[in-house]
Design brief:
Layout: H1 8-18, E1 22-26, H2 35-45, E2 51-55, E3 61-62, E4 65-68, E5 80-83, H3 90-99, E6 104-107, H4 117-133, E7 136-138, E8 144-147, E9 152-155, E10 169-174, H5 177-189, E11 194-199, H6 208-215, E12 221-227, H7 234-246, E13 250-254, H8 260-270, H9 277-286, E14 289-292, H10 295-307, E15 316-320, H11 323-335, H12 345-354, E16 365-366, H13 370-373, H14 377-387, E17 393-398, H15 403-420, E18 425-430, H16 440-447, E19 450-453, H17 456-471, E20 492-494, H18 496-505, E21 513-516, H19 519-529, E22 533-538, E23 551-555, H20 558-575, E24 583-588, E25 594-603, E26 607-614, H21 616-622, E27 625-629, H22 634-642, H23 661-677, E28 681-691, E29 698-700, E30 703-707
Parallel strand pairs: 1-2, 1-5, 2-4, 5-6, 6-7, 10-11, 10-12, 12-13, 13-14, 15-16, 15-17, 17-18, 18-19
Antiparallel strand pairs: 3-4, 8-9, 8-11, 20-30, 21-24, 22-23, 22-24, 25-26, 25-28, 26-27, 28-29, 28-30
Helix pairs in contact: 3-4, 10-17, 12-14, 14-15, 15-16, 19-20, 22-23
């Protein structure tokens, strides 16, 4: 993890940007709707108490304030300059600011790296100026930043000041300026206290990772809500994410780029080149990031983390007033993999005593409309589920159809929460989105740590993310450094026989076989290992042997082996003229079973990952593949295997036998150990790995290992 205590110079510079005591507004204006006018409005509304210098060569006064005619007239050492000027004027302004000792710049202008080679060249020049003079630079192509804690809004989006400081707020850090503004509006709507909002834009010098690092120790910030279109320093981000988690804080992140069109859009939007989405997902999750799929989920998960004192370490107890919603809640919880604990016999007895006879105890619990008649119902029933260790949270799904009935329901619910002081996560969800949601009781609930949602679907989806995170102990990962070291590997693709030899050395079962260099050897080896056999052409330059006619299967006799030897060499000579073979691998044919594809790789940007999916034609048809962190332990790997869409085939489908999932997990674990211990190995692929019934193991029928650099 990163040692934040040893970065005083960088943190001092970031103070100039995030907490400036003096600001220069370059391009200040009184023209309604202009960027400079909006920034000035924001600062005035927030009663900015520092020194503010306005610069506009055409306006000697703006709103009764003196305006300087040029940047050269600024005093030396202004903390932060905001450039609200056209892009063609930015380089000259940045250079002038640097020569006046300005500590940091915020650049709104677009037309840089996102706009083609000319823009990229201008951005490189801009970065060079910042680096030469030691200026921090936010942007270009950004919406600026808002420090809600100290009431410093340096953005051209109208931003109302926050009413008061909060101890457990959320900081928004987004490469997209528009989405940073949208998320801030949504969070304010849900009364989520904000600490900072930073739009990093094109990240000419300063990116997501830098702002995250410099806000980790901010006392007011508990949650970081990130919008990341591309990670420019993935391994540094992972290290920071682990530091955030160790500090008892949280990262919630949305990352467009799952589909190719989204990746292309990200590249044109912020000058980013998107990486491998699934690899990213596996490793940021491993590092402790809650990776969500929509802006709505980003806001909703953040709300739970900001409000709730303790993360849920078990599924919820759900209270509702509708039998139909009870059934819908069961469906939705299954859909999002949120397990609902059953009532224990003791809890069931306690609820029977607290409930009318016509309400059967269950989870979810349908209280019907009884709360209107019996306001003390919540005070009597909540203690039972709050005391049950199996329940990690309580979700109250309440109907708010009209102010009259709401005025009857909410006060006793609020009083129960106020009296019981729940230590578990409490979630309030209105069943009828669209009903009024501005009751004073809800604001009091928020102050008491209750997350409040206008719909139960949003609440359940967000709770599923937080519950999975809370139940993750870290024990599913192997923190020990693996000791499997492979020596004397040359760069390139190892042919199958060498790849399999390596796999056998780490305990993975391969077919009996030998490399033959003559037809006589092939016949002899076939007789030794037993028929039927396969012949496979072997050369580093021939990873796809079948394409060159280099694989002949199910040979049942010595005569067939001799015929196949000649046919194989004729095929390769015709289809790959000039290719020299190391020899021909003679292997005993394996028994049929379920075919999987397994892989492991050292991703240059992110680190080590595993791949598993269904092999053969099935893999192409359904694309049923999972990417996993390479240090996952076998029990967690088994769980991931069952999570494949075709996982039912592993458990025994339509009367078929249960397959050896334990053995598959062991192979993946060994592959993970191999790539983690050997950075020179870029990739390992087993395709197919045949899986047999439980207790009978697996067999790696084909394998390739790629090496990027010579091993020690």
């Amino acid at each position: 993890m990163i040692d934040l205590a040893n970065t005083p110079r960088i943190r001092s510079k970031f103070d100039q940007l995030l907490r400036p005591r003096s600001i220069a507004l370059i391009g200040a204006s009184a023209k309604p709707g202009s960027l400079g006018e909006t920034v000035l409005d924001n600062l005035d509304q927030s009663d900015y108490a520092g020194d503010l210098y306005l610069v506009n060569p055409k306006r000697p006064t703006i709103r009764g304030r003196t305006s300087l005619g040029s940047i050269e007239e600024l005093p030396k050492g202004v903390d932060c300059a905001v450039l609200a000027i056209p892009s063609e004027a930015v380089l000259a302004a940045a250079s002038a600011c640097a020569q006046r000792g300005v500590g940091s710049l915020i650049i709104f202008s677009a037309g840089f790296a996102e706009g083609g080679e000319e823009g990229r060249a201008a951005q490189r020049e801009l970065a060079g100026i910042a680096d030469e003079y030691g200026m921090l630079l936010e942007g270009p192509n950004c919406l600026g930043m808002v420090n809600y804690v100290d009431r410093i809004p340096l953005t051209f989006v109208m931003t109302p000041p926050q009413a008061s400081r909060h101890a457990n707020g959320a900081a928004i850090i987004s490469q997209s300026g528009a989405l940073a503004a949208v998320i801030a509006v949504n969070m304010r709507h849900h009364r989520i206290p904000l600490t900072y909002s930073v739009s990093t834009g094109n990240e000419a010098t300063t990116g997501i990772e830098d702002f995250l690092e410099n806000l980790i120790n901010d006392e007011a910030t508990r949650v970081f809500a990130l919008v990341v279109e591309q990670f420019r320093r993935p391994k540094r981000f992972l290290e920071l994410a682990r530091t955030v988690r160790a500090a008892g804080k949280f990262i919630v992140m949305v990352h467009p780029g799952r589909c190719e069109a989204a990746r292309d859009s990200a590249a044109t939007h912020t000058g980013a080149l998107a990486g491998d989405y699934e690899v990213m997902h596996a490793l940021v999750t491993r590092a402790g990031v809650i990776h969500v799929e929509s802006l709505e989920e980003l806001v909703d998960v953040t709300q739970i983390l900001v409000r709730c004192r303790e993360l849920p370490r078990g599924g919820p107890a759900i209270f509702t007033e509708s039998g139909a919603f009870k059934a819908l809640a069961l469906d939705l919880c299954e859909q999002v993999s949120l397990k609902l604990p059953a009532l224990t016999p003791a809890a069931e007895r306690a609820l029977r005593e607290a409930l009318p006879a016509f309400i059967p105890p269950s989870n979810p619990l349908d209280l019907t409309a009884q709360g209107l008649i019996d306001p003390g119902l919540y005070r009597r029933t909540l203690p039972t589920v709050l005391e049950e260790p199996a329940f990690g949270s309580v979700l109250l799904g309440i109907i708010l159809t009209d102010p009259k009935t709401t005025a009857i329901k909410l006060p006793p619910i609020l009083e129960a929460i106020r009296t019981l002081k729940p230590h578990k996560a409490m979630i309030f969800a209105a069943l009828d989105e669209g009903a009024p949601f501005n009751f004073a009781e809800l604001d009091e609930m928020r102050e008491l740590g209750v997350a409040c949602f206008p719909s139960p679907e949003r609440a359940i989806r967000a709770l599923a993310y937080v519950t999975r995170f809370g139940m993750s102990t870290g024990e599913e990962y192997d923190d020990l450094q693996p000791s499997i070291t492979v020596l004397n590997l040359r760069p390139g693709i190892l042919p199958e026989y060498k790849s399999k030899r390596l796999l056998a050395d780490i305990g993975i079962t391969i077919p009996d076989g030998h490399l033959a260099t003559t037809c006589e050897e092939a016949v002899r080896f076939a007789a030794e290992i037993g028929f039927p056999v396969a012949l496979k052409a072997q050369a580093s330059a021939l990873p796809h042997k079948s394409d060159a006619g280099g694989v002949l299967l199910a040979l049942d006799s010595e005569a067939q082996v001799m015929e196949a030897w000649s046919a194989l060499h004729d095929n390769v000579a015709r289809l790959r003229p000039g290719l020299r073979l190391d020899g021909v691998l003679v292997e005993r044919m394996g028994a049929k079973g379920l075919e999987l594809i397994l892989g492991a790789r050292n991703d240059r940007e992110w680190g080590s990952v595993l791949l598993v999916g269904f092999g053969g034609v099935l893999a192409e048809a359904v694309e049923d593949v999972r990417i996993l962190a390479a240090d996952l332990r076998p029990p967690a790997i088994q769980e991931a295997l069952h999570g494949l869409r075709c996982g039912a085939l592993l458990r025994g489908f339509r009367g078929g036998p249960e397959l050896d999932v334990t053995a598959v997990a062991d192979v993946l674990y060994r592959l993970g150990q191999l790539v983690r211990a050997n950075s020179s190995i870029s990739e390992v692929e087993i395709n197919p790995l045949v899986v047999y019934p439980k207790g009978r193991g697996t067999l790696a029928l084909d394998a390739l290992v790629s090496v990027t650099e010579a091993s020690a």
